[in-house]
Write a structure and sequence with these properties.
By secondary structure, the protein is an alpha/beta fold. The protein contains 15 helices and ten strands.
Length: 398
């Protein structure tokens, strides 16, 4: 009995010690978290807020105007700004919609938005810097996950509601646009884009995030858990590759992981996969063509030129370098309508696919890296006849 009471007494002493430590550490932890939320860059960079990506009744979604943003893209954290029109830009500023002089507007999805990069480092930013030498202003209306249904409605909103004047629209038509036209976006009987109401965050989600957002210790533990979860996914994927490619687990290298992760994707494989083509590719391309016809009609009513640009994903590098269902179709579409057409396929599909992937794409991603953005900017300027402006694209201007 005595031993039992001694053990209870020792246990109570340990418990009191733990409580004292918690009571001493907790106020410091919560106080530091409160301070860091407003004053420490690392706090936002670890779990950046996403409130700059906003819903739009007119064109589904966009970017909030005049903001300075910290955003995550995979393990990358990067900064950019938006201007008064909600366009990605070098700094918050007011865009004069009625400005005199030549103006080019770009629109596209995440490739054209420049995910992972600030505006000056993206291909649109590089083109903007060079065009400035000719007195031409360049604006970027692109946002992640856009497609022709949104291109048409956003451009219509900019022209007819915002009264934005521009001379040329450049559409960077992505392979995923075809998938999104069927699987992501819907149009009602009146031709309006269906914009779902935002889902309210549940109590469980809010309670689960509360410690991470209000405790420095909990935030570090959450980050560590995320990193361990990422490692777990890599191990699982390595096992999948070893089984599918008949390799030993330790023989699967980094390039194997990368190539496996960015190919055979629904967004791009429809150009060569007959099953995906039948499931959504044919219908998606037909819808995209209808939306592009409507966009072209709108532009011609307002005397605005259209330039159409296509480019490959890693899927095309490895499996479909000519991509007649995409590159060939849009070349013919443009020729039939007198639209200027630029294909960037040759810039990426000539050469060993793994070497091209390593040189021009973000590691373990299907988006372009800094050298890829420079390549796209240079190829676009050359196609327009601005060869004197196309090199160098970074560093000191010629």
């Amino acid at each position: 009995m005595l031993n039992f009471l001694q053990k209870v007494s020792q246990g109570m002493k340990r418990l009191r010690s733990i409580v004292v430590v918690i009571l001493a550490v907790l106020p410091m932890d919560l106080g530091l978290a409160w301070y860091c939320r407003s004053n420490c860059d690392f706090w936002k960079s670890v779990y950046p807020p996403n409130d700059h990506r906003v819903r739009s009744e007119e064109y589904h979604h966009g970017l909030a105007p005049n903001r300075r943003v910290i955003e995550s893209w995979g393990l990358v954290r990067y900064r950019y700004a938006t201007n008064s029109l909600g366009f990605k830009d070098a700094a918050p500023r007011t865009v004069d919609a009625d400005k005199e002089g030549r103006r080019i507007l770009f629109i596209g999805d995440s490739f054209t938005e420049g995910k992972g990069f600030d505006f000056p480092s993206s291909f649109v930013g590089l083109i903007a810097e060079k065009m400035k030498m000719r007195g031409i202003e360049v604006l970027n209306a692109a946002v992640d996950s856009y497609s022709p249904a949104i291109y048409r409605r956003k451009v219509e909103h900019l022209i007819e509601t915002r009264r934005l004047k521009f001379d040329t629209l450049v559409v960077f038509l992505d392979l995923s646009d075809i998938h999104d036209e069927v699987r992501r976006y819907q149009v009602d009987d009146q031709g309006r884009l269906v914009v779902p109401r935002p889902e309210r965050e549940g109590l469980a989600e809010r309670l689960g995030r509360f410690p991470r957002d209000n405790s420095l210790i909990a935030r570090f533990f959450s980050l560590a858990y995320d990193q361990l979860e990422f490692v777990g996914k890599v191990v699982k994927r390595r096992i999948e590759i070893a089984e599918k490619w008949n390799k030993l687990f330790f023989d699967v290298d980094g390039m194997d992981l990368w190539a496996y992760s960015v190919t055979d994707l629904d967004a791009a494989a429809w150009t060569y996969d007959d099953i995906r083509w039948a499931a959504y590719g044919a219908a998606g391309r037909q819808r995209a063509a209808g939306e592009m016809d409507g966009l072209l009609s709108l532009l011609r009513r307002h005397g605005i030129e259209l330039i159409l640009v296509v480019y490959p994903w890693p899927d095309q590098l490895f499996h479909d370098p000519e991509a007649p269902r995409h590159q060939g179709f849009w070349r013919a579409w443009s020729a039939a309508r007198g639209v200027r057409f630029i294909s960037l396929f040759a810039e990426f599909t000539e050469g060993d696919p793994r070497q091209v992937l390593s040189r021009y794409f973000i590691a373990n991603d299907f988006h372009w890296n800094a050298e890829g953005h420079e390549l796209v900017a240079r190829a676009f300027l050359d196609a327009l006849g601005f060869s004197g402006l196309s090199a160098p694209l970074s560093g000191t201007a010629p």
